[in-house]
Amino acid sequence: MKVAIFCESAADEAGIRILVDALLGMPSEPFELDKFRARRGWPSVPNSLPAVVRHLYYQTEADALVTVADARGSPLHSAKCDPRQADPKCRLCYMRQIITSTSQRLGPVPNRRPLLTAIALAVPAIEAWWACGCNPHATEAAWERDRATGASAPVHIRKLKQAVYGTDRPQLALETSRAVEEARRVAAQIGELERHFPAGFGAFAQDVRTWAERSKEAGTPA
Ligand SMILES: [Zn+2]
Question: Taking the CA atoms of the chain, what radius of gyration do you get in angstroms?
């Protein structure tokens, strides 16, 4: 299965692919999104999403698109989010709404299967996922309690980066190697990541697990 990953950096992408492969139960085939790379980061991720979806659908053979962004100080996605009226404050619903409305406007292409999609929101940043299991406070619930009492997302994220990389300003090579190392550890106990990050990772994990079945139904080899 050819899976394109659109996220905030190449380092995040390397780690996320390991998690996606663990959820799929097999290695995915990487699909480059180099032409969009320079524009990543929030709000570039949602702003670029319509072009990414159209590019993958019309100009490539990618089977699936994974989108991941950091929540930072934004609210946690919850059952209270109204799917019909995406609240731009919830980054997950906002990205989901963009992908849904873009997909609905795609025209039919002979032999083209619909693009499979899954969206995740790292709360408050992807380093919390990489710290899962090592730092008992690296959970959505713990961050939500801190956020409710006025904790600063940038300060919290700096501490997470310091713990994961040994510095809050890692070079790309260090950021990538640590992401890969921690993603391998976390992927081996992926249920823990789902348990500690149910809103931003749990629903994403369920979506990815349905892909093999859905692509089989659509006649695409997984
Ligand atoms: Zn939401």
Answer: 17
Which residues contact residue 131 at a Cβ distance below 8 angstroms, ignoring those fewer than 6 apart?
138, 160, 163, 164, 182
pLDDT band with cut points at 50, 70 and 90 for residue 213: confident
The CA–CA distances, whole Å, from 138 to 57, 130, 213 equal 36, 9, 32
Helix (H, G, I), strand (E, B) or coil at 61: coil
64 CA distance to ligand 1 middle (Å): 21
Return d(Cα 41, Cα 133) in angstroms, integer: 26
Is the overall model pTM greater than 0.85, yes or no? Answer: yes
Q: What is the mean pLDDT of residues 45-64?
A: 95
Is residue 84 predicted with pLDDT exceeding 90? Answer: no
> Residue 87 Cα, ligand 1 centroid: separation in angstroms?
7
CA of 53 to the centre of ligand 1 (A): 20
Give the CA dihedral 194, 200, 206, 209, nearest 10 degrees: -90
Residue 24 and residue 76 in contact, taking contact as beta carbons nearer than 8 Å? no
Which region holds residue 113: left if phi is over 0, alpha if psi is between -120 and 50, else beta? beta
Backbone dihedral angles phi then psi of residue 118, each to the nearest 5 degrees: -150, 135
* DSSP state string for 62-84: --EEEEEEE-TTSPPP-TTS-TT
